[in-house]
Description:
This protein has one domain (about 5-140): Jelly Rolls, CATH 2.60.120.10. It has two helices and ten strands. By secondary structure, it is mostly beta strands. Mean pLDDT is about 90; it is low at about 135-143. The chain is globular, with a radius of gyration of 15 Å.
Amino acid sequence: MTPAEIQAVPLDGNQIGSAGVAGVHTKVLFGDPAKAGFYSILLFVPAHTTIQSHSHKDNRVAAVVSGEWHFGYGDRFDEKSLKALPPGSVYSEPAGGNHFAQTGADAVIVEISGYGPTDTHYVESKNDPKAEDKDKDKNKNKN
Length: 143
């Protein structure tokens, strides 16, 4: 895909292979992150987004396509530990390795490849957007 084609990808809400944060979405380029085997996705992250510390069960390698991605490793989000990664930067997400990220004033696109199936586990369950969705569903059922 050319940069123009990447930018033209419609926002469809797909979050497979992502941290599940609102506004973040992915586009599968190859394979299926939910199944065994090699996959590659584009991760689209809006401006002013913080992704708390989490891990994935598969080894992943990533490249920043556009925007400046602020990325760090550790069990808790720590702004001082973020490294600014401009377009063309590469990094890894080792299996089970906790990491976190943030965007600034610009949206970011990251290409991520790994061997599925992948998943996302937050260090603190209170930071897991999926847990928030489950809590909302529980409250709806009580009413």
